[in-house]
Amino acid sequence: MVINQVKRAKQIPKSLWKRIKIEGKNRKHKTVKVYKETCTIKKYQGNLRQIIITEHGHQQPTFMITNDFEAPLPILLKKYSRRWLVEQEIAEQIAFFHLNQQSSDIVIKVDFDLTMSLLTHNLYRVLTKELPGFEQCTVSTIYRKWC
User: Fold this and answer.
1) Of 28, 42, 3, which is closest to residue 135 (Cα–Cα)?
2) What pTM was estimated for this model as a whole?
3) Which residues on adjacent β-strands are paired with residue 19?
4) Are 69 and 49 in contact (CB under 8 A)?
5) Same domain, 58 and 84
6) What's the pLDDT tens digit per position in 94-120?
7) Number of domains, the chain
8) What is the 3-state secondary structure (H, E, C) of 23-36?
9) Is 5 helix (H, G, I), strand (E, B) or coil?
10) Which of the listed residues 54, 71, 88 is the one where a domain comes to its end?
11) How many angstroms separate the Cα of 139 from the Cα of each of 2, 12, 97, 121, 142?
């Protein structure tokens, strides 16, 4: 299904795409191309707004579905990009610090493990801000290069 969507997105005529600017001082890709359309999905009553995003630093287009038809595209994309960063951070913590595999069934030990893992993750993030050229690296990359 996703592959079909990507193929379909690549067949959309260039004249239907709109270039928009997303505010933010630390953004690599300040302008992206978007295509918006109305769609429906199973088990949901009503229409949804599908936004396809390209030229945003990824090889494949990104698909965003929302029921917010009112918000301007730049505001929606900025809001969702923050959410994607949070999801990326959580995925990184699960993969590198194994947050889904705590070492004990005892609540106090699990809380301690979680606290120490989050503290370590945040210390790695602080370290990346101090290493020129490594600001955007993942925790596992920093560990591999420096530890």
Assistant:
1) 28
2) 0.60
3) 33
4) yes
5) no
6) 677 665 565 555 555 667 777 787 788
7) 2
8) CCCCCCCCEEEEEE
9) helix
10) 71
11) 29, 38, 9, 7, 5
